[in-house]
Design a protein that fits this description.
The complex is a heterodimer. Chain A is mainly α. Chain A has five helices and three strands. Classes of the chains: A mainly alpha, B alpha+beta.
């Protein structure tokens, strides 16, 4: 995969089918985790704690009220960001040759957000707690994915900035 | 936060003074070791409408001080900002302005 470039009114990058399959799988796992979180699954709640942080510190009552009002909507919107990824990737993932992925600006922003959420979840698994943590290598593929997703997100920021 | 080197910042570019008496709540964005500096600055520009230099300054403040105030206003407005930051995957809270 090379970087996103302006194309038409949006942005385009060419993805290898195996890259699309990896991203598709990650986006589907994120959707599943969010769905489990909506269902009150404690393991999902734990995995999502960085994705859905408290809005209040030092005020448990206000934090709880805010969660009750906002959590469902936030999960649904985050799930829709992940769905933008799966929709765009399905055809490329099913193919056998590199193919262009075309994103509108709104879709590119959905991608940035879903990728950010995936990195927060991976960081937890890798034990990245403070600035400078590189993360362990357990599992090694998680560390590689974490860095690759950073590259894609940074690339999308660069592509969107290029349009300003 | 984490990422590539950044241009030097102009320390003068601190935002307009606030009127604490009229704006009892504020939106705080906290440092985290995951979000990219480039992305955080982009979110600050996109959501709060900050110019590039101010967005960079706030982003660096989050990075070095551990937190930065991004907005002040009534509680409802600040809850909307916090929710928007959470949509972007940033760690934000709201708090009452101390008098």
């Amino acid at each position: 995969m090379r970087g996103f470039q302006p194309h038409g009114e949006g942005y385009q990058a060419v993805l290898e089918p195996y890259e699309a399959r990896v991203l598709l799988s990650l986006a589907e796992q994120l959707q599943q985790l969010l769905s489990d979180g909506l269902g009150g699954n404690p393991a999902a709640d734990e995995a999502l704690h960085r994705v859905l942080p408290d809005a209040y510190r030092n005020d448990d009552e206000a934090a709880r009220e805010w969660r009750e009002l906002s959590r469902r909507g936030l999960i649904e919107r985050k799930s829709s960001f992940a769905a933008t990824m799966t929709t765009g990737l399905a055809t490329i993932a099913a193919g056998d040759s590199p193919a262009p992925l075309q994103l509108s600006e709104g879709e590119a922003i959905d991608w940035m957000r879903a990728i950010g959420d995936l990195r927060l979840i991976l960081a937890d698994r890798l034990g990245i707690v403070v600035d400078g943590d590189e993360g362990g290598d357990d599992p090694p593929e998680a560390a590689d994915l974490y860095r690759w997703l950073a590259w894609i997100q940074d690339d999308l920021v660069r592509a969107l900035d290029g349009r300003r | 936060m984490t990422a590539a080197p950044l241009p030097a910042l102009d320390e003068q570019l601190v935002v307009t003074p606030q009127h604490a008496a009229e704006v009892p709540w504020r939106t705080v964005v906290w440092n985290d070791p995951v979000n990219l500096m480039s992305y955080v600055a982009w979110v600050f520009r996109r959501h709060f409408g900050l110019d590039e230099a101010t967005a960079e300054q706030r982003m660096m403040q989050v990075h070095t001080d551990g937190r930065a105030i991004l907005a002040e206003g009534n509680r409802e407005q600040m809850e909307r900002h916090v929710e928007a930051m959470h949509e972007y995957g940033l760690w934000a809270t709201l708090e009452r302005v101390e008098r």
